[in-house]
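Session log. Operator J.P. requested a structure for one protein chain; no other inputs attached. Running the standard single-chain path with token output.
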Amino acid sequence: MGRTIGIITGERIATGLVEGEKLVGALRMHEEDAGAAEPLHSTPPAGIAKLFAEEIQTVAAGQTVDAIGVGLPGIINCGFIEESPNLRQLKGANMQELVAQALREHGISAPVYVYNDADVLAAGLAATHGYLDRFIRVWTLGYGIGFGVYPRREGVWEGGHVVVSLDPRERYCGCGGLGHLEGIMGHRAMRLRFLDMEPDEVFENARKNDQRCVEFVKLWHRALAAATANSIHLAGPGKFFISGFNAKHLDLNLLHQYLHEMVKMSPLQSYVFEVVPNRDENGVIGAAVSASQNIAAA
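Structure written below.
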């Protein structure tokens, strides 16, 4: 098997060299230095591409690599960022070409492939859990809500923006849409909803029987159940991974209870959930594996 490099953005930039389905060496983490560089959300596309190229060059360490996989948030089509609510300046940018061009300046000519960050996480979990031969889905519960599928299928797959409420007051989603899953479960949305406490405090106070928090925690779980039920009714049952820093708040028993109320057709009830740690290496491996599969299919 050849060697590929995966690079992802999340809370920080993570890059790694991958052979087959395993990391080679340590994961490289780029921590933002506020005194030396602009935060990623205010850096223009060419600047992000340049930063990625520097990280990739460091990880390659002079070795030849077969391909490079990049995971970015948003709707991505053939390397173009059609929309990215979390990195708004990337909208319309051909990040595939920008990263490839920046890499050529460093003497690296390997092909570059750009994917949605939740999709590369799904590919990474499939690779590390032995599921490369089956269809899996993953929810990422963080600042926003990501939804990834493996293997990649045609479509937009912005599952975090499915409508799970018809209440016109549910307007906390960062994209501006009403009733979206992210507007209920997203970290930013929870901060807007509860201006007097942090999301962690909401769940803590729910355990202390604060009724406002108790009712929200029920809504939080019911929203994820509704979005999952929609996916099951469209694509069938199967394995759902759940990751992200807010997955720690998930009560699987409550989620199963609500989902059982929503999915009643017996052929659709063979669904399984697994909560997995929020590890950057899963996304990095997934980006690299996806790029390797693209090379094999070419």
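Operator note: The radius of gyration is 19 Å.
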